[in-house]
Every structure is written in structure tokens, then in C-alpha cells.
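tool=predict chain=A
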Amino acid sequence: MSGRARSTRARRAELSQHFLRDASASRLVQATSISKSDLIVEIGSGRGALTKPVLKRAGRLIAVELDRYLVEKLRQRFGDDADVIESDFLDFALPSEDYSVIGNIPYSKSTEIIRKISEASYPPLDAWLVVQRELASRMCGLPFSNESLWSLRLKPLWHLEIVDRLRKTEFDPPPSVDSVFLHMSLRGRALIDSSELDSYLDLIKGTFQNNRPVVQSLRRVLTKRQIRRLALDLRFANDQLPNSLMFEQWLGIFRFIQRDAATKVSKD
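tool=predict ok
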């Protein structure tokens, strides 16, 4: 075995490299809406399992890979058809035109990568990501699991869905955790205006940090009568904890609070 091959294998654990098998990658790409009009950024192209089927469907492809040895291999295979960039995706400058992303992303950096995508000044229209099932469930919230700070933070701007589940044997080497294919789709119209997003996040974080029934947390901003009305209209109980409410209920609570605040201002 050459020194370069030994070096690459030694770094695999550090880079969370669990490569998709070709057949599995092709199946996942078939589940996307990628078309010839799309610019796609692939996160962590690895051995090119996703790269090959994506190239057949996409108009343009930027393949971002950190491992120098794999970058060389990717350029040899796809250099005429894809722009292969040697970079950590977290350092990569996202396009300033319409684009989507796809990737079998390193599980150790999944949270950072999703934060970069979701908080970008020019976010992707779609993100198709192989991630750990537990993380995807937290991101999606209901109906896959209870709502979380992550899911409630994302849902005003994104629709999230688990579109496929993968067996451990679909990777080389197999990971120790369960994996899924997560789809994040940017909403055409945000459910909360950007000028109000910070207020919404403050409401969510405040109630989750207290970890008390929602009714108790709302007493600092609403009267008992208003809370009773909200609970009746939105159908939540007095003892319900923050993570047991649906996003739609949180949205209703926030909009009520905003209308109440606007009414008080107009009266003053």
C-alpha cells in the first residue's frame, strides 16, 4: 500500500468518511427534483457515488471535497463535467445565484453545515442531505418526533421531510448510527416576516429554556383570559410542555402576541 493510500485511510475516521455505495446513491438522486436547469453544490463528494448520478440530471455541478487525495480522483473522473473544489464546505463561499445542495455530509459537522445552509444570506432552494436519523428527527419535529428548538427555528422558512431511510450496509464502512435522506425546501413565502423572526425565536427559546408548561411561560406576556382563549382556539392543555405543541400552534401563539402588541401600540 502506498504512503498516500495509507494517509487517506488513516484520515477516514477524522473526516467521518462513510461512503455511499453507488446503487444507494443513484436511488437517492432519483428521489430528488434535480433537473437540467439547476446549479447543484455537492457537499463532500468523496468517491463520487452521488456525483455521477447528479451530473446526469443537473445543469451544473460544483463538487466540494476536503480530502486532497479524493479531490484528485474526482478531477480525474469528472473534471470535464464538474467544477471540483478542494475545500472544507464550512469555508466554501456559497453561490449568489439560485442553487441547491446535496451531500452525504460528515456526521460530526452536520449541525454546523445545516446552520450554514439555513442561515445563509442567499440560501439554497433545496438541500438533500444524508444525515444521522436522530438529528433529522430533531430538525423535522412533528410528525417524525416532538418539536425541538431546531425544528421550530427552521419551519418558518423551510419545509423539512425525511424522504428515505438507509441501511448501515449501504455505506462503506458501515456507520454505527442509523441514517436518513433529509430534504429541506426553502418556502416560497416565509411564514414569519424577517423583521419579526427574532421576536419569534425569543419566544420559543424562552419557553423551552424554562421547561415549564407553556401556559405558565405565557403569563409574562399575556393575561389569564387571553391564555384561556388561546388554549381553547389552538387546542392545547394547561399542562402541555413546549415540545408537545405543534409548530402551527406556536405560530398561532406568536401571531396572537404580535397582534396584541400592535393593538396596545395603536391605543397609546
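Residues 207 and 215 are 10 Å apart (CA to CA). The chain has eleven helices and nine strands.
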